[in-house]
Amino acid sequence: MAETPTSDVIIFTTLFKEVYQKCFEQPLEKQPLESEYKHLSNDIEEKTGLVVGWKSLKNYGLSILEEKPRKPVNPSSATLDTLSRYVLAAPAITEAQRKKLESPYGYWFVYRDQLLKTQVKQGTSISSHSWRKPGLFLLLLFIGISLLIVFQPTGHFKIEEYFQRLEEKDLSERGWFLLNPEDEYWNKRAFMPGQMTLFTLPGDNWRTKENKPHIYNLLCREIPTENFSTEVHFSNFIPLENWQQAGLLLMEDTLFKGKSIRISIAYNDYFGGFSRPGEILVQAIASHDNDYANIEEVIHYPLFAIDSTIEKSIIGNNLKYSALRIEKHGQTYRFLYAASPFENFSFKEAGRYDFNMKPRYVGIFALRGFVDSDSVMPVSVRFFRLENLDN
Fold it and tell me: Would you give the distance in Å from CA 57 to the centre of its chain?
């Protein structure tokens, strides 16, 4: 910023102290050591994917803690946004992705607005002298922001997405962000008018000896509640190669280091050497953190067997409209599906599973696993819903 208004300097001071508190789990009361600033810089980069140099952090700390600062605080907009992302536990992102996919430095404005709203609700105001004095003001401020950020509101909410506007700016403003972009196919997302098209590119959210976890063009958003229902609807998606699939992925983090659980409509023709017809199925997979190489198939629900006795046109008719839903109540996950020739269909339960996981993000994906194939199938996504079940 060319000039930082006084009120923004005060808000930045509160932000900086929260950053320190989050990293070291103690208040900023004395000037940290250089080693602490270096650790803080590394932690910010690890959590956000973005860089704030330790020397810059040291200069901010000096200015904030000095009674009569020799140099005014003047952080850049990028720094304000990065520190806000750190405090708000935003998903990690590269600098190129931030510039390409998000509104300019939006997390800073989210943090700033939340702080100002907290002050209005508490009947206090931010003044040029109160921010240096600890006490009730900062205590209430910290509690208010913690409630907003950590515990999240429990009031009823429902997000519905019809994918009518697919410009990256529009998606970002509606709360979406993209992981692992693959430009060639992401640029084809408007392939089907009135829907979003993903493609079954190579990848998966669990690692093998030869492959690191990745899913290209994974479209995600945050889950701001403990218990919820989320669903995705497809049109004319008929996977026909091993392991083509599309569905919903719940994640603890966006780096695939923590736990995850997903549901998908998939194709399978592997039966351990036994001769059986290939199948289209509803599958749910649970994955533990990065220390576990193995995954657990918790739902295997065949929909159709692909053999000579069943015409593909019949399968295609029954998969004209399909949908998947996950409902979370505590540690219990309920998996549902729909497959119908009609747009107005009913969901059926495929199964339930107890899993000790606290998902923070939901993603819509299409993939074909780590298989040797050049086949890429389009997947038409026509609807998404996320709704809390806390009330």
Answer: 27
